[in-house]
């Protein structure tokens, strides 16, 4: 029987929301499974003090090294990093980093094939970069290079001689002098500037689509789920920032009438084609991607960002679907190793 270890920087699976879903799914798939953290690894006898879900509770038991490791989160300390790197030398890992937002952007751009889906973006190196980018695109988005869940995203545009900066529900008007001070601060915290692409509902609410794509049990990319994110207000349609979602087909019919099916198929085909291409750009095989896209008024796809360890879809109890694909892919890796 294949054994999969779920590696987390947390010590206790009861504090990890998705741990139970993976344990339950592994049992249904006939895969041995346990949860562990870096501090529980013993390299001398190749054993791990892991957590096993039995009879409705988590129990700690010493187990031999697994066949495959699902690295569900990044190490948080230098010591954890050292242990994780040593494990990578001897056991296949399911997940591998794709870099920050500008790394992803540059990789796609350099490869050319999907370049036309990219929103023009630059890393902010000096305050003048912000002014020049704003002159070129009129309205821009400012994002942390390593941000997630839509946090600390800013929007900027001109208002005659002044500048407007918006974050969440707060809007501030600045003189050129104050805006330059603001732009200088961005150079110290690793931000990128992105042209603003309007993707909205018929009623003017900001929207995007999350394509959650995973490798399946035969190592092929498959679309696990596709759902819209809609802003209740403001310019960021992020579910962790007050946005909401709904059933995809109902949403598409409401927004696109008879075109809804073609748009659905367009996004589905894009998700697989893009992941197959993007996977080929990295030395280590990828396992799971969360791609956020927008549709402009011409129904053209724009890539907002690509996430290599996307969160569990916050809808319709899809954590089991995600876990099932991951467990099956992990079993495939073990059998291929």
Give an account of the 3D structure.
This protein is 30% helix and 29% strand. It has 337 residues and is of the alpha+beta class. The protein has a six-stranded antiparallel sheet, sandwiched between helices. A four-stranded antiparallel sheet has the order 14-13-15-16. A three-stranded parallel sheet has the order 2-1-6, covered by helices on one side. The protein is globular, with a radius of gyration of 22 Å.
How is this fold's topology laid out?
Elements: E1 3-7, H1 19-28, E2 32-36, E3 41-42, E4 47-54, E5 57-64, E6 68-71, H2 78-88, H3 101-111, E7 121-123, H4 127-137, E8 139-144, E9 154-159, E10 162-167, E11 170-174, H5 176-186, E12 191-195, E13 207-215, E14 221-230, H6 248-256, H7 260-279, E15 288-295, E16 301-307, H8 319-336
Helix pairs in contact: 1-8, 4-5, 6-7
What is the CATH C level class of the largest domain, in words? Alpha Beta
Q: Ranges with pLDDT <50 over ≥5 residues?
A: none
How large is the radius of gyration?
22 Å
Structural class: alpha+beta
Number of strands: 16
Structure annotation, total helices: 8
Termini Cα gap: 14 Å
Name of the CATH superfamily of the largest domain: ATP-grasp fold, B domain
Integer average pLDDT: 93
């Amino acid at each position: 029987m294949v054994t999969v270890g779920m590696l987390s920087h947390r010590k206790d699976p009861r504090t990890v929301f998705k741990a139970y879903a993976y344990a339950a799914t592994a049992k249904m798939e006939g895969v041995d499974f346990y949860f562990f953290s870096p501090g529980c690894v013993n390299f001398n006898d190749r054993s791990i003090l892991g957590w096993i879900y039995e009879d409705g509770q988590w129990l700690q038991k010493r187990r031999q090294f697994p066949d495959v490791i699902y690295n569900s989160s990044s190490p948080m300390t230098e010591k954890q990093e050292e242990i994780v790197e040593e494990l990578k030398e001897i056991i296949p890992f399911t997940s591998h980093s794709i870099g920050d937002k500008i790394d992803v952007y540059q990789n796609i751009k350099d490869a050319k094939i999907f370049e036309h889906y990219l929103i023009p973006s630059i890393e902010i190196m000096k305050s003048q970069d912000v002014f020049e980018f704003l002159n070129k695109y009129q309205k821009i988005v400012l994002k942390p290079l390593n941000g997630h869940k839509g946090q600390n995203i800013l929007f900027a545009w001109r208002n005659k001689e002044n500048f407007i900066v918006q974050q969440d529900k707060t809007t501030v008007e600045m003189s050129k002098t104050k805006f330059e001070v603001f732009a200088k601060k961005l150079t110290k915290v690793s931000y990128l500037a992105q042209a603003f692409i309007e993707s909205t509902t018929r009623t003017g609410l900001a929207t995007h689509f999350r394509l959650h794509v995973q490798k399946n049990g035969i190592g092929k990319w498959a679309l696990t789920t596709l759902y819209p994110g809609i802003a209740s207000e403001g310019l960021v349609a992020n579910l962790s920032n007050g946005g909401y979602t709904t059933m995809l087909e109902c949403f598409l019919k409401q927004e696109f009438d008879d075109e809804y099916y073609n748009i659905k198929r367009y996004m589905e085909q894009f998700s697989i084609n893009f992941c197959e291409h993007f996977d080929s750009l990295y030395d280590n095989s990828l396992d799971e991607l969360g791609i956020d896209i927008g549709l402009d008024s011409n129904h053209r796809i724009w890539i907002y960002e690509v996430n290599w360890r996307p969160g569990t879809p916050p809808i319709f109890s899809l954590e089991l679907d995600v876990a099932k694909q991951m467990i099956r892919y992990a079993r495939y890796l073990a059998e291929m190793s």
